[in-house]
Design brief:
The chain is an alpha+beta fold. The protein is built from four helices and three strands; from the N terminus they run H-E-H-H-E-E-H. A three-stranded antiparallel sheet has the order 1-3-2.
């Protein structure tokens, strides 16, 4: 496997905090909580902290970018 594949594979099993997820998505922490409450992605608790699967957040971001692009093209 090449280095890029190994990095992508490692990220799939990585947990992100609310702040890290917000930075990855380019939104506020509050918006991440709103998305969570809307059922856009799953979370789990580690102690008192909400944690998100990095691969799921990246997938959500990719899907959102794809929908945004389609909206611009169809407008």
């Amino acid at each position: 496997m090449n280095e890029i594949t190994l990095e992508a594979e490692a990220r799939q099993h990585q947990d992100l905090t609310v702040l890290e997820a917000a930075r990855l998505l380019g939104v506020s922490k509050l918006h991440v909580i709103d998305l969570l409450e809307a059922g856009e992605f799953d979370y789990h608790m580690v102690g008192a902290d909400l944690m998100f699967n990095a691969a799921e957040i990246e997938s959500y971001k990719s899907d959102r970018e794809h929908r945004d692009t389609e909206s611009l093209v169809s407008a």
